[in-house]
Amino acid sequence: MMRSSFLLLLLCHSSSSMLLGWVESPGYPSGYPPHATLNWSRCAPEGHILSLKLIHLDLEDSHDCENDALKVYSGEDQISILCGTVEFEELESTVNPLLISPSGGCLKLLFQTDYSNPKRYHGFRGFYTIHDFDECEDDLSNKCTQFCHNFVGGYRCSCHHGYQLAEDKHICNVSCSKDLSGMSRGEISSPSWPDSYPENANCLFTLSVEPHRQLVLRFSAVFDVQQGPDSQCKDALRIVTQTKTLGPFCGNKPPPSPISTHSNQVQIYFTSDETGENKGFRLHFETIEKVCQSGVIANSKMTPHKQEYKSGETVTVICDVGYVVNSKGALALSTQFETTCQTTGSWFPSYSCEIVDCGLPQIESNSILELVDVPAQKTQYNAEVQFMCSSEYYKLKGHDTYTCNATGQWVSPGDKADMPKCIEVCGVTSNSISSSGRILGGARASLGQIPWQLLIKSPRRGGASLINDQWAVTAAHVVDGVDESMIKIFGELVDGQESDRTDVLTCERIIIHPGYEQGISSNTRTNYDNDIALIRFKTRVNLGPNICPICLPDVNRVMLEDEQGTVSGWGGTDRYRASRFLLYAHISVYSLDTCRSTPVLPKVGTMIFTKNMLCAGADGKDSCGGDSGGPFILPMLSPAGGPYHLAGIVSWGAPCKDGANKGYYTKVQNYIEWIKNTIKGT
Ligand code: ARG
């Protein structure tokens, strides 16, 4: 007991510290038990620190103190781990100085022992004190820029004469703000000019004159505002007008003078940091009448063009190409407007020039024509869109890329505003022909081999050819006198009986060539001139591999004598009056002379041959009753063939069983104009 009191006297040398109490291990000093634990913690009030002095430490020693240990924490950080026997002198010199809490924080002890001790150890004992923390001694703990004064539990800052303590109570700055409102001329300079300006200056100079006048600033040649090595401004001058901020300015070159601020209210900010010896700046300000500026309306030009305009002057603002006037709600797209310079230095009226937006191109709903995905907002001036056809049975006619032009239209190269079209792919098959055959002596076609072939089942049996996705062509005599609603026409089949299962193509209109002599029975008809008719379907045919159109011939194509082609249909064969399956036969175009010697039909008489006909056949091969209206195509259907075109329409002929093998066909070439005009006209 004597010894402890003596030590206490020795240790409590600091007058500001106060003994708070003792802490010791369980069973001290007789020895701590196995599995002992002590969890101890004390906290210091604000502005104070807690310190622990160990006067005795006698624990089992082990590597990293893993058996028995006294761990000391300052706040959350472990600051020491102790074990073994440490002499008092050593505790005092190396251990105790470290055992302190953070200012206003806690000190924590964690004492833990394991299951056994080789011998008996006393444990530890220490006392703790609190004392004031001197923030002024520690640069990190106070933020005073000039003077720091410590007191028990805290500190305060103070400033040199001429400075004032800022609101944060730490920074000393110079009061240098001036309100110069109403003054139309004068001088402004950095504090202490022409001597160096002080540290931590924070000045605001406020200038304000009548609304129709503007402030003009002129800097003196001497200009010295501290700049960092990276040319960043350490100290800075900023000029804030009604519309913009100029600066920060620093370095040794004054801002280019004079500065026309175009503003009747200007704020000049000057700030310095805590270092540097620089002279600062000086400027003269005065006022002039406000003027209007060019270039204040984006994306436009003014005519007549000048840098500045006096109040009362009127100009025309012309938007740049691709921009239009946004005159709030006015729908008409205009690219220019007139505006007048006001005494306030602003233009009236003032509209903006905004970029033209074409919007998305208008495409009919459920059209084959489609847009390749357009990114949102990409419909403005100069934006591009790409068209495509959604079905492989069509190809794009025209350009595929369109650009949004300055007048808000989508145009193709060459400035054409007509939209591209998706045109049916014609005359190609996805199913090639295998071997040659016959109708009268014909071979069976498989599905998709003659995909344009249509079957008219009633009221009169015949054939027809699809020529685009909504029109078919047939012989006039097949549909002469037939009501649209009566006609049953099918596609996409080769087995005529399957038509029961296939949808009818709904016929909307039948147009018989005006040159065809209507209403004459085949029993008496000698003239089949212009034996051609068009059928329009109610809806677009859904094109696919088994139904797609045949091409029309080129008007100028020369048909050669002996040229081989293919005729097809469900007409009579040598065995039956009509075929269940679609048959085709390869036949040759006969010479004009052969055609001219027309057959004499029993009961009818001598038939008339006109320039609108061709005749064709082959040994044992011919079209026959029921094939009428069907296609005779060129070139001959073959594996590598196509594109095919419709050279003839089965029209009439010598009785097919009599062996003449001479069929007459409407020469489609002569009707291209009529077909195109008729289709266009509906
Ligand atoms: N007029 C017949 C019909 O309506 C076609 C006759 C074709 N005759 C011929 N020998 N090629 O089906």
TrEMBL record:
Signal peptide: 1-17
Residue stretches making up the CUB domain: 12-131, 176-288
Pfam families cross-referenced by the UniProt entry: CUB, EGF_CA, Sushi, Trypsin
Disulfide bonds: 65-83, 136-148, 144-157, 159-172, 176-203, 233-250, 292-341, 319-353, 358-404, 389-422, 426-551, 595-615, 624-656
Modified residues (Phosphoserine): 189
The organism's place on the tree of life at top rank: Eukaryota
Annotated CDD domains: CCP, CUB, EGF_CA, Tryp_SPc
Keyword terms: Calcium, Disulfide bond, EGF-like domain, Glycoprotein, Hydrolase, Hydroxylation, Immunity, Innate immunity, Metal-binding, Phosphoprotein, Protease, Repeat, Secreted, Serine protease, Signal, Sushi
SUPFAM superfamilies the record matches: Complement control module/SCR domain, EGF/Laminin, Spermadhesin, CUB domain, Trypsin-like serine proteases
Sequence ranges assigned to domain Peptidase S1 in this UniProt record: 439-680
Localization annotation: Secreted
A biological-process GO annotation: innate immune response
Enzyme active site: 477, 531, 628
Sushi domain segment(s): 356-424
Protein name: Complement C1s subcomponent-like
